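G., the chain you wanted modeled:
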Amino acid sequence: MTYTINGQGNYPDRGLWVSNAPASATISATKVTQYISDTVGQLTFQRDRTSSQWSTLAYDSTAPVRNGYIAYTTTFSGTWQYDTDKKLWFPSALPYFTTTVNNKCISLKVITARFVTVNGTVYSFERSATLRPA
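Predicted structure as tokens:
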């Protein structure tokens, strides 16, 4: 089974953005940590060519421990642009990674934690889900 992390798409349905930050804000230190159920073992991800401004999603031994999960982190090295019509900040590239998961996997528990620094303050947002093959 192929597991895909696809942040590509259009606001408001897909992608990443920063809201409630003025056009004069400084956006920096962006990363995403994906916690994946340890039932599938440690995974190796491949980065899509369109995601070159994101480091390859890789095992992260420095991430806070979540019992039953393995942490993988990617960091963003691109720039953020302010959309004056939407009054939102968007990164210059969106993440896209794939990996192969054991075929015996019938569901996969994941937690996605996003971190971004705005004007020197770190903000984070999390979502969790149980994924199943289509």
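The mean pLDDT is 94.

Shout if anything looks off.
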